[in-house]
Sequence to fold (326 residues):
Amino acid sequence: MPPKIRGMTANLTSQTSTLRRFTLMVSGEDAIDAGLERDTPPSGLPQERFLLGDRLPIAPVLLLGQSDLAVNPNEVIACLQPVHFHATRDHLILMAQSQIDLTANESANLLQVALPFIEEDFRNKVLFQGQRDWFIPAGPFISLATHSIDQAHGRNIDWWMPRDTNVTGVAKLWRKLQNEIQMLWHIDPVNQEREQRGYPSINSLWISGIGKLADIQTPRLLENVNQLYGDHPVLVGLAKYLAIRQQREIDFSKLQNTFAWIDRPEIIWDSLRKALLSKELDEIEVIDFPQGQTRHRILTAKDLNKKSWAFWKKSEPLTWQEIISE
Fold:
């Protein structure tokens, strides 16, 4: 059986430790059952809330990571994303952006068609256009409750569409704009060419991440971090906001006091294990989100092998799967 790894909550994690620590965060899913009780979806993925706080100002963080603009920390910004709604027998499913292969030229052409409608309803000019993401001051849509594509993709969009919060009628205004753009794009040459190539049409616009940089509430553990590893767009923008170095690939010669958020942690586990055994690191902190709840655990060299009552046998090393399923 795997050993009991020392568990810690966010408040109990040592923030002033002088030990050489590497922190690894593993993506989790939302606690969907909690939303069913309230008849509203959970607000954000747990890793989004952990890094940015409960207000989830994802849009301005993404804007920071994708542009060289000087972002006003008190300006509320929305992220608009051209998407594909896949029709099933009785509902629509939002496809992930990685599944639609949108090119930069296609994105620019689609925005050009929709731009007058967007800027009229938002009462603002678009700040920046990326290949997948467009950014604009939220204007009258500031109060919308929204969900990121990372959270909503692959699911029935009915439950994940923007909702009114403290101002009524805003969600209706968004649906009106969304419908207008859907009709424009339905007959656009971009989609005709995509369908001829066998690609899904870009048939709708998604809004999410509404917030301002001043709303960011980062975890205290990042105060002691000098390097971020990973390429998630939120991490790239957060590194810029915190003025911390960031790179996609992990440099295993520089693990001390670093933080990683990567898609496949099992690939790097053997290297991390060796760093503990060779005393290049004193401990590894693993952050994951079972049932949508944040869990912190600390591993040292003595935690790396399976414990057995057969003390005369050589103990076997724990696999990553055994650690994460503990």
